[in-house]
């Protein structure tokens, strides 16, 4: 700057010490213009302000020279002075424009920086220039900070083992750190500006595209997926990609950025784990198969031992011989229980245990459990009692076998560790959501109790509270562990309350669905007309039993008066309390039931006051003539509500059949062959088992044929026709499954015999294998005579009717076999027959719905299982026409066209509708 005046003015106004600082300020303004957004008109000012100052400097110098010249020339012309003034005016206008521009720059800088709230006098040139210089200094610092951050990022990114990447909006790499080269072998230089898909393995591009589509649609903020990249050497590298989209301020996509990690080693480890898992599954399968084989090998001789023992007990034996045989039977049963425990535990451990879903009655489940343990309770003179609270549903849907198994285990343990008193089972409802109910079962005993410090061992596998327990009571230590697993499978939990010397209570819960189709049985209903207001005397020294009977009598509308003391009861009768019926316990202190009954008969006759005597099985030996005079009926403990109800009703209504009858009826029907004539063949390779099943059939009146393997079965059938085959599974030359397949291929359905599998295998899937092979039913070893009877009754009529059913017109024939209906009514009472009908009316619609669903969803394996279950249910009620169509469905192969299957299902449903209409009229 040449003009001193201008220099001093500007330096003074801007408070700048020297011209160098002014030059630096102008330089910063230019850099500010390159970094920050400045309006176009301000940009022009910033870029030309230095020129402007130089121009003014020259003007000052020029005009100073001219003024000096004018002063020298006193005679200068007035017009020259006017021109000079005009020039100065124009320059002033330029200075005003510069001032205006500086004001606008300051305003814009306020908007785009953090100085929005700073107050500036926009008419003060000094403040304007100060503010611009301040922003200029800050922008310099920001620029330095950005430079440092970029350096830090690059240093960090280049040190990572993961690939850091960025692409442009077209998917071309714009940044890759050195890890890219380490993982793929491609250099960063040769990869930049290439599309990232170039490096992805062709089969995995779709995975990448799916992710990108989700990002574009903004369904996700980021994607994480695994693909394979192609390396420079042609190898495939497994990587995990993390991707996000970049946007600008206008929400326009700028590209992708993210991280790529090398997961090749992890993938290899996963592959190894999969191989190890498959190996473990193979080992588990081998273990299961080994257990099944061992089960067969162990249970086969056990079947012979127990079966022959049972037959031996049917013969005439001396007391000493009977004792020896009974010891063999008990020891065999114990060994079989131990085997079953180990097999059950193994099934649960391997995940092979599956629960069934069928309707059943809770009360009957408990009573069945008690019935299995009655003999042990009788030996110790223990009472087995149960109380189901009123809010508990009568019928639920679940696995009755497994629930009964838990109850039997807990009650059996209670009996083992209780020397006197009772075992009491209570059931109550904890809650209900829609159709799902949570129930709590409690098994309480008056035994030795369990110390609290031993609680943690109770439910552990192979563990017992005390090792001496095993020596004294036996067992594997698996019983409660199995109970725990079964309860958990049923959606519940199990726990213990106990005190040493004060008894124990085991609680467990289950979650199940309520079965609403089954109506409550009559003896569960309240206020029955036949019993309403009947006065009943209840005498039992066991308080729990006294309360249960009293409560049940109240539910039936009776008026009970209860006491644990025989003398007090006698005083009530002497005072002429008008009782209609008396229920007395036989075994009581001071005055037992027999003595009390004799005293009562001195006051009131049998017709005036019928007496029902409660007694443990085998605990009384009374002269028949005396019993007839004293008692109207006996009820054995544990008491079944249905049994007690029927006896009370019969006695109250003075039914003609009130004489005492032996409750114990033999299960053996020696005239079975006359009632249901059948030609039976036994296929069994084990000589002992051959003798056992032949002896059982002989006691039922059947002379059965016998062969030793599947080949002999086929040859025998070619020579002679049979109605039923009891087929062992594991036989030499040709096993039972293969023989069944050959039979089904060789003989038409109406010509072939009913095939019943006999096997000692108890592992999951064994029954399905038999059914899938074409067998009709399944019986587990050891073979029991009552099971054989049930199987024969169940399949006899079906075997007879299927010979002619194919020749009949289904539209004109009846759906139900009247002979079977009549037989069912004859074999048991009408109440039981009605239960069978009601059960079918609940189960059949569920199975039909399952058949429709599985057909629509093309789940043909499940469809065939449902058809099989419907067949079994239908045969129980004589619905042979429906059963026959079910057989066709369950035996159809994969060659059938969908349309053919549809016609078969349509026919099945039509016949079901006709069958259901007839059943409802029964």
CATH superfamily of the largest domain: Histidine kinase-like ATPase, C-terminal domain
Shape: elongated
Q: Assign the structural class, choosing from mainly alpha, mainly beta, alpha/beta, alpha+beta, or little secondary structure.
A: alpha/beta
User: What's the number of helices?
Assistant: 31
Rg (C-alpha, Å): 49 Å
Count of individual domains = 5
CATH topology label of the largest domain? Heat Shock Protein 90
Gap from first CA to last CA: 125 Å
Reported CATH architecture of the largest domain: 2-Layer Sandwich
How would you describe this protein?
By secondary structure, the protein is of the alpha/beta class. It is 54% helix and 15% strand. The strands form 4 sheets. Strands 6, 7, 8, 9, 10, 11 and 12 form a 7-stranded mixed sheet that branches. Helix 9 (264-313) packs across helix 22 (687-699) and helix 10 (319-349) packs across helix 15 (479-489). It is elongated and about 175 Å long. It starts with a helix and ends with a helix. Residues 467-474, 655-666 and 803-813 have low confidence and may be disordered.
Which helices and strands occur, and which strands form pairs?
Blueprint: H1 4-14, H2 19-35, H3 40-72, H4 78-112, H5 125-159, E1 163-167, E2 173-176, H6 179-184, H7 188-191, H8 205-216, E3 223-230, E4 236-247, E5 253-262, H9 264-313, H10 319-349, E6 358-361, H11 362-379, E7 383-388, E8 395-398, H12 400-416, E9 422-433, E10 436-445, H13 455-458, H14 467-473, H15 479-489, E11 494-498, E12 504-514, E13 535-539, H16 543-555, E14 559-563, H17 566-574, E15 581-585, H18 593-603, E16 611-616, H19 624-630, E17 633-637, H20 641-652, H21 672-675, E18 680-683, H22 687-699, E19 705-707, H23 710-719, E20 724-728, H24 736-746, E21 754-759, H25 766-772, E22 777-780, H26 785-805, H27 818-827, H28 830-856, H29 860-876, H30 880-890, H31 898-920
Parallel strand pairs: 7-9, 13-14, 13-15, 15-16, 16-17, 18-19, 18-20, 20-21, 21-22
Antiparallel strand pairs: 1-2, 1-5, 3-4, 4-5, 6-8, 8-12, 9-10, 10-12, 11-12
């Amino acid at each position: 700057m040449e003009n001193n005046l201008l220099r001093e003015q500007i330096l003074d106004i801007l408070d700048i010490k020297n011209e160098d600082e002014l030059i630096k300020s102008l330089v910063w303004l230019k850099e500010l213009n390159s970094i920050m957004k400045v309006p176009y008109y301000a940009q022009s000012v910033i870029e030309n302000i230095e020129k402007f100052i130089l121009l003014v400097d020259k003007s000052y110098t020029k005009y100073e020279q001219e003024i000096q010249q004018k002063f020298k020339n006193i005679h200068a012309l007035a017009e020259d002075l006017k021109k000079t003034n005009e020039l100065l005016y124009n320059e002033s206008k330029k200075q005003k424009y510069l001032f205006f521009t500086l004001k606008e720059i300051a305003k814009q800088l306020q908007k785009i920086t953090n100085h929005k709230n700073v107050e500036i006098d926009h008419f003060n040139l000094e403040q304007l220039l100060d503010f611009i210089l301040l922003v200029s200094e800050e922008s310099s610092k920001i620029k330095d900070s950005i430079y440092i951050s970029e350096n830090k990022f690059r240093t960090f990114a280049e040190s990572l083992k993961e690939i850091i990447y960025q692409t442009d909006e077209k998917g071309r790499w714009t940044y890759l750190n050195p890890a890219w080269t380490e993982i793929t072998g491609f250099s960063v230089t040769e990869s930049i500006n290439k599309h990232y898909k170039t490096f992805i393995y062709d089969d995995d591009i779709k995975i990448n595209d799916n992710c990108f589509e989700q990002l574009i649609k903004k369904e996700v903020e980021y994607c994480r997926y695994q693909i394979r990249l192609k390396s420079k050497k042609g190898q495939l590298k497994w990587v995990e990609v993390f991707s996000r989209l970049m946007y600008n301020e206008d929400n326009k996509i700028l590209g992708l950025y993210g991280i790529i990690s090398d997961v090749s080693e992890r993938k290899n480890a996963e592959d190894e784990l999969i191989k190890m898992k498959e190996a473990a599954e193979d080992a588990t399968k081998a273990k299961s198969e080994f257990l099944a084989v061992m089960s067969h090998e162990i249970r086969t001789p056990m079947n012979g031992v127990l079966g022959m023992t049972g037959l031996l007990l049917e013969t005439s034996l001396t007391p000493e011989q009977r004792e020896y045989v009974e010891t063999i039977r008990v020891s065999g049963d114990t060994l079989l229980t131990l085997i079953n425990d180990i097999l059950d535990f193994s099934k649960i451990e391997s995940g092979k245990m599956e629960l069934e879903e069928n309707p059943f009655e809770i009360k009957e489940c408990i009573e069945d459990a008690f019935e299995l343990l009655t003999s042990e309770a009788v030996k110790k003179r223990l009472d087995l009692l149960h109380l189901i609270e009123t809010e508990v549903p009568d019928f639920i849907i679940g696995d009755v076998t497994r629930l009964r198994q838990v109850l039997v285990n807990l009650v059996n343990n209670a009996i083992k560790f209780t020397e006197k008193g009772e075992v009491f089972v209570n059931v109550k409802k904890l809650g209900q959501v829609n159709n799902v109910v949570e129930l709590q079962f409690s098994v309480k005993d008056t035994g030795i109790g369990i110390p609290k410090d031993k609680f943690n061992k109770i439910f552990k596998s192979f563990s017992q509270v005390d090792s001496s327990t095993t020596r004294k009571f036996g067992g594997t230590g698996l019983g409660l562990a199995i109970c725990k697993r079964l309860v958990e499978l049923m959606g519940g939990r199990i726990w213990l309350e106990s005190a040493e010397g004060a008894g124990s209570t085991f609680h467990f819960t289950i979650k199940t669905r309520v079965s609403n189709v089954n109506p409550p049985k009559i003896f569960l209903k309240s206020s029955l007309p036949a019993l309403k207001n009947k006065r009943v005397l209840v005498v039992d020294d066991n308080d729990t039993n006294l309360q249960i009977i009293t409560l049940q009598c109240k539910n039936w509308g009776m008026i009970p008066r209860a006491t644990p003391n025989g003398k007090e009861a006698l005083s009530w009768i002497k005072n002429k309390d008008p009782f209609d019926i008396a229920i007395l316990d036989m075994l009581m202190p001071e005055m037992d039931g027999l003595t009390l009954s004799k005293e009562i008969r001195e006051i009131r006759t049998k017709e005036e006051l019928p007496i029902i005597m409660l007694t443990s099985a085998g605990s009384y030996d009374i002269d028949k003539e005396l019993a007839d005079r004293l008692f109207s009926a006996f009820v054995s403990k544990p008491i079944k509500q249905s049994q007690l109800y029927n006896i009370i009703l019969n006695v109250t209504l003075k039914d003609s059949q009130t004489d005492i009858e032996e409750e114990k009826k033999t299960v053996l029907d020696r005239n079975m062959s006359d009632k249901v004539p059948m030609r039976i063949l036994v296929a069994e390779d084990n000589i002992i088992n051959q003798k056992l099943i032949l002896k059982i059939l002989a006691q039922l009146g059947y002379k059965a044929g016998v062969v030793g393997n599947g080949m002999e079965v086929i040859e025998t059938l070619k020579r002679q026709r049979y109605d039923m085959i009891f087929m062992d599974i594991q036989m030499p030359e040709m096993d039972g499954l293969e023989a069944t397949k050959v039979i089904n291929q060789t003989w038409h359905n109406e010509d072939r015999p009913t095939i019943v599998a006999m096997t000692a295998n108890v592992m999951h899937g064994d029954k399905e294998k038999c059914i899938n092979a074409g067998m009709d039913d399944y019986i587990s070893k050891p073979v029991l005579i009552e099971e054989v009877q049930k199987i024969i009754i169940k399949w006899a009529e079906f075997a007879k009717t299927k010979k002619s059913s194919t020749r009949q017109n289904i539209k004109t024939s009846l759906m139900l076999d009247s002979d079977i209906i009549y037989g069912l009514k004859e074999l048991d009472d009408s109440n039981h027959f009605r239960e069978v009908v009601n059960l079918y009316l609940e189960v059949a619609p569920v199975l039909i719905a399952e058949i429709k669903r599985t057909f629509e969803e093309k789940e043909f394996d499940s469809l065939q299982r449902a058809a099989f279950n419907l067949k079994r249910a239908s045969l129980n009620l004589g619905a042979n026409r429906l059963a026959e169509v079910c057989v066709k469905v369950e035996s159809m192969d994969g060659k059938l066209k969908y349309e053919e299957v549809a016609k078969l299902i349509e026919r099945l449903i039509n016949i079901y509708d006709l069958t259901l209409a007839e059943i409802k009229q029964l």
